[in-house]
Amino acid sequence: MSLYRDTGVVLRVQKLGEADRIITLLTRRHGKVRAVAKGVRRTTSRFGARLEPFGHVDAQFYTGRTLDVVTQVQTLDAFGAGLVADYSHYTAACAVLETADRLTLDEGEPVLRLYLLVVGALRALADRERDPSLVLDAFLLRAMAFAGWAPALAECARCGLPGPHRSFSVPAGGSVCPGCRPAGSAKPTHETLRLLDALLHGDWETAEAAGQPARREGSGLVAAHLQWHMERQLRSLPLVERRAVATGGRRPVDHVATGDRTPSADMV
Ligand SMILES: [Zn+2]
User: Fold this and answer.
1) Which domain of life does this protein belong to (predicted)?
2) What is the 162 CA–ligand 1 centroid distance (Å)?
């Protein structure tokens, strides 16, 4: 029996048999790990509650023939407690987990950078000090950079001509100069491109100075770019509630429920 220990974030849980669960974790050193947690659905389980989505845990596993098995779990951060109380923070966190899950197709491949991005995004969302929409977009831009397809923002995606440029084309890879601009390119404002650049580079002072129209436009471009590059569409993204900061309310600006499932449908 081979044992190993790692820290990880619980991305997803699925039922297995009468009392067990398969837990999918994004770990610091072993990449994505799918492991069986035995007996966790019994009320007497020692670690069932620690292995819920959003949980950041230190766990011990032993290597099984098909799936590894969780043998010990300690909670490092219970991010779920700070997330479930607010719908916009919760849906943004669901989108973080689902994006991380989809960006890591190969189990066992080390993805330290992505792991750190996920923990940072969940911590920021659970603290509830920043606009959840900005936190999500910052995470998505950096996750796309990790995957190798962040949108070009400062130069032309096709010829590299330094910008900023007025046009943005998702199929072309981001900002495009007048010479390279495909028909049907979007025309984001300079403020929107400045916002996206600030989010990509962690410049929160610039990002939080951006107005609501730029935040909305930026979120739309990030979502379009992400969806273009994902093999499958990110199911929870359309559910993300964009907070209307300008009115101080919580009016969902682009709250469009698609399909018949909630972001957590396969997490319970
Ligand atoms: Zn160009």
Assistant:
1) Bacteria
2) 9
In the numeric block, which tokens belong to residue 136?
């999500």
Rounded to the nearest angstrom, the distance between the alpha carbon of 153 and the centre of ligand 1 is 12
CATH architecture observed for domain 3-80: Beta Barrel (2.40)
Measure the N-to-C terminal CA separation of the chain; round to a whole number of Å: 30
Separation of CA 13 and ligand 1 centre (Å): 45
Tokens 């907070």: give the residue: 243
Of the candidates 90, 89, 132, 96, the one whose C-alpha atom is nearest the C-alpha of residue 117 is 96
Instruction: Enter the CATH code of domain 87-247.
Output: 1.20.1440.120
Q: Is the sign of the CA dihedral 262, 242, 100, 47 positive or negative?
A: negative
pLDDT tens sequence across 28-65? 999 999 999 998 888 777 777 889 999 999 999 999 88
Give CA–CA dist 191/113, Å, rounded.
Answer: 28
